[in-house]
């Protein structure tokens, strides 16, 4: 019998949306932490999601006395709202460590780009769009448009971008299956790596920088081994715990700018070897490792 299934239309996307449930509070878990940092950082709301502008404001944090003569660090979290340590790792770094580096760097942080997805523990936004394939002009994802518009107004060159993510078991058990249904296209199965890894850009390979990130994280948690084919998540490894993607072609957050240095972290929160705290600390260690490496580069 001929397969008559077709990719989702508007009705199917609306049905998917109706099935989503609020599972945690963005206001209580994220906004409350942002508000506690108001006296130490310049914090502004750069927009709100139209699905509920009261519940889902989005914020940008900057170091006080922003100095154009210093290099600027961008930290993004919660591009995929379900990737919890990306959000809380960004906030933890800003709270506990950012001010130790302000003699040499400015900081900009957007800790949770996708708040509706945070609350529903989703990879997609409410329109069944993956924000991390949508960082482009005329993006279909409101989360990306809000971020890109806000960032363009800053008129600031980014020296290094840390985009904090996770790879979870639900990438296979939930989101790959939903993607196949949405697009009516089979997606190649890849094992979820057990451990931390990073994704760099094929447009700007910085092996020593990525290695510094990995070595810093190794002190906190284990690094993902390659599979039997020498791959991580279906991609050949560049070095231990490192793969490279075409960030710009895929419209990933990590490729939206022309930052000389960029890394996308991938924590594995489903490992029996880790806790939520370890996952958050791994994100922090990634940023610290990258910054310590860059401090040495700048002092040469």
Mean pLDDT: 96
Low-confidence stretches: none
Q: How far is the first residue's CA from the last residue's CA? A: 68 Å
Give me the strand/helix succession. HHEEEHEHHEHEHEEEEH
CATH level 3 topology: Aminopeptidase
Per CATH, the architecture is 3-Layer(aba) Sandwich
Q: Going across the biggest sheet, name each strand in turn.
A: 1-2-4-3-5-10-6-9
- Derived structural class: alpha/beta
Q: Tell me the name of the CATH homologous superfamily.
A: Zn peptidases
Which CATH class? Alpha Beta
Oligomer description: single chain
Name the beta content range. Answer: 15-25%
**Number of separate domains:** 1
- What radius of gyration results from the CA coordinates? 19 Å
Number of strands: 10
Describe this structure in words.
- This protein has 300 residues and is of the alpha/beta class.
- The chain has one domain (10-299): Aminopeptidase (3-Layer(aba) Sandwich).
- The chain contains 8 helices and 10 strands.
- The chain has helices at 10-19, 26-36, 84-96, 115-120, 142-154, 170-183, 207-218, 276-299; strands at residues 41-48, 57-63, 71-77, 105-110, 160-166, 197-201, 231-232, 235-236, 242-245, 261-267.
- The protein has an 8-stranded mixed sheet. It has a two-stranded antiparallel ribbon with strand order 7-8.
- Strand 3 (71-77), helix 3 and strand 4 (105-110) form a beta-alpha-beta unit.
- Helix 3 crosses helix 8 and helix 7 (207-218) packs across helix 8.
């Amino acid at each position: 019998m001929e397969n008559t299934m077709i990719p989702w239309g508007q009705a199917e996307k609306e049905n998917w949306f109706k099935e989503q449930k609020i599972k945690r509070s963005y206001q209580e878990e994220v906004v409350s932490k942002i508000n506690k940092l108001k006296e130490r950082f310049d914090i502004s709301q750069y927009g709100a999601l139209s699905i509920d502008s009261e519940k889902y404001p989005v914020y940008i944090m900057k170091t006080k006395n922003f100095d154009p003569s210093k290099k600027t660090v961008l930290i993004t979290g919660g591009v995929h709202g379900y990737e919890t340590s990306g959000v809380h790792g960004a906030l933890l770094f800003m709270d506990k460590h950012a001010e130790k580096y302000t003699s040499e760097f400015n900081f900009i942080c957007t800790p949770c780009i996708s708040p509706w997805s945070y609350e529903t523990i989703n990879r997609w936004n409410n329109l069944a769009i993956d924000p991390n394939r949508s960082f482009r002009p005329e993006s279909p994802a409101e989360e990306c448009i809000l971020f890109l518009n806000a960032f363009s107004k800053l008129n600031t060159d980014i020296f290094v971008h840390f985009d904090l993510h996770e790879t979870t078991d639900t990438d296979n058990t939930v989101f790959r299956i939903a993607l196949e249904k949405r697009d009516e296209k089979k997606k190649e199965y890849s094992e979820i790596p057990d451990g931390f890894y990073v994704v760099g850009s094929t447009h700007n390979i910085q092996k020593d920088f990525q290695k510094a990130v990995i070595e810093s994280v190794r002190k906190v948690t284990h690094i993902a081994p390659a599979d039997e084919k020498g791959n991580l998540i279906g991609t050949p490894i560049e070095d231990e715990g490192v793969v490279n993607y075409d960030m710009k072609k895929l419209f990933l957050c990590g490729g939206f700018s022309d930052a000389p240095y960029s890394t996308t972290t991938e924590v594995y929160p489903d490992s029996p070897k880790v806790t939520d705290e370890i996952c958050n600390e791994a994100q922090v260690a990634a940023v610290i490792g990258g910054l310590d490496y860059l401090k040495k580069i700048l002092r040469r």
